Amino acid sequence: MRNVVTCFLAASVVILSLAILTTPKNEVAASSETYKQLNLFGDVFAKIREDYVEEVDDAKLIEAAINGMLASLDPHSSYLNPENYSGMKIQTRGKFGGLGIEVTMEGGLVKVVTPIDDTPAAAAGVQAGDFITHLDGEPVLGLTLSQAVERMRGLVDTDISITIRREGVKEPIELTITRAIITVQSVRGRLEDEDLAYVRISSFTEQTDSGLRKTIKNLIEEAGDVKGLILDLRNNPGGLLDQAIAVSDAFLTKGEIVSTRGREVKNSQRYNATPDDIMDGKPIVVLINGGSASASEIVAGALQDHRRAVVLGTQSFGKGSVQTIVPLQGDGAMRMTTARYYTPSGTSIQAKGITPDIEVKQSRLEVLEPARRRSEADLRNHLDNGEDEDKAESVDGDGTEDEKALDYQLLRAKDLLKGVSLFARKDLN
C-alpha cells in the first residue's frame, strides 16, 4: 500500500510539473506555489504514516484530508463516503433511517435546522435552533458534519443519547432517542373551516410536486370549492431544487421562478413558470419560520416576488446556496456548493432569509378572566330564575377546547384568507 501511495504522489507531481511547463508565464508563479503546497501535503502524509504514535489507515487519513478541505469552504460542502452517499440517495427518495432531523454545522457544533414531522426526534422534543453538543456522552466538537450524522445513524430500535444546548435554557438538555426508519410523507392536507385548503410540505423529495397536486385536487373535491390555500412551509429544511421549482410553478402562470449563478456567467440558469395555476388565482398565504430553509425559501420567495401569495410568519433560515453532488471513484461522492440562487427580483437570501410580508411570531393564546364584578346572584334574597338548576347548562364547559394548543400563526393566516375572500366577493357584486 505504501508503494501505491508513493507512486500516486509521484504521479501527481509529474502531472502538475507538466501543467506548469505549458502554463502562461503570468500563471506559472501561482502554479508553482500550488506545487509546493501539494508537496507539503505529501510530506505531512508520509510523516504521519511513519511516526504517528499509532498505526493509521491510509484510506481514512486521505478521507479525513478531503473532508477537511471541503469543510473549510462552507458548512454545506462535504465528502460522502459510500455509506453516506447511499443514505443520501435513499433520503431524497423519501425514506431513510435515523432520528429525523435536518442539521448543519455552526461554531463546531451540530445545529438543528428542523426536526422532521412524526419522527423520533420530533417526538422527543428536539426543536429548530437547538445545538447538539454531545452524542452518547462524546463531544461533537472536532467532528465534521458527515461524521456527526454518521454517528447519529444506526440500527433501527437502538438508542442514542444526545445533549442539547437551547437558547433561553441555562442547563443542558439530555435526551435519549430511539432510532427508527424515517418515512417522510412530504405533503399532507386538510380542510380548515370547511372551505379553506391547508397543505403542509415538510420537505422536498421526489414525490412532492405530484403529492401537492393530488392533495389540492382531493381537498377541492371534498369541499366542492375552496376560498383559498394556506401553504405551510414552516420547519421545512428544503430538499430537491427541481421539486421547489415544480411547486412554485404549480401556482404561477408566467415569469421567472428562480435563477442560479455560479462562478462562471455561462453556468447561470434561469427557471421560468408555465401557464398553469392549480388554484385558479385564488388567494394563497405561505407560512414560514426560522426552520424554513433552502427549497422552501425558493418557493416562498417566488410566490412573494410575483405577489401571488402573502408570506406570513417569521424570518426564514437564509440558505441561499446550491449544492451539486459529484460522484467519485470508489462509490463515494462530493457535495460541493456550486452556485447561489436568486429570487425573481434578483435578491440573494444567503445568510439573510426571506422577510415575511406580515410578521407573526408564534404565540400561546389564553383566555383572560375579566375582573370579578357583582351581579344579581350576589344580592341577598335574590329571586331564582324559575328553572331547575340541575338542567342549567354549564357556562364554562369542560375546558377541553380552551386547553388545546392553538397555532396562532395558522389562525392569523385563516383570518387573512377570509378577509381577502370577503373583499373579493364584494368586488364581484
Beta-strand percentage range:
15-25%
> How would you spell out the order of helices and strands?
HHHEHEEEHEEHEEEEEHEHEEEHEEEEHH
* Helix coverage percent: 25-40%
Taking pLDDT < 50 over at least 5 consecutive residues as the criterion, the unreliable ranges are 13-21, 390-404
CATH architecture of the largest domain: Alpha-Beta Complex
> So what's the overall shape?
globular
N-end to C-end Cα span: 83 Å
Number of helices: 11
User: From the alpha-carbon coordinates, what is the Rg to the nearest angstrom?
Assistant: 28 Å
Q: How can the largest sheet be summarized?
A: 6 strands, antiparallel
| CATH topology heading of the largest domain | 2-enoyl-CoA Hydratase, Chain A, domain 1
Rounded mean pLDDT score: 85
Please describe what this structure looks like.
By secondary structure, this protein is α+β, with helices and mostly antiparallel strands. Helix content is 34%, strand content 23%. Strands 3, 4, 5, 6, 7 and 8 form a six-stranded antiparallel beta sheet that branches. Strand 11, helix 7 and strand 12 (228-232) form a beta-alpha-beta unit. Helix 1 (2-21) packs antiparallel against helix 2 (25-51) and helix 8 (241-249) packs parallel to helix 9 (295-305). It is globular and about 100 Å long. Mean pLDDT is 85; it is low at 13-21 and 390-404.
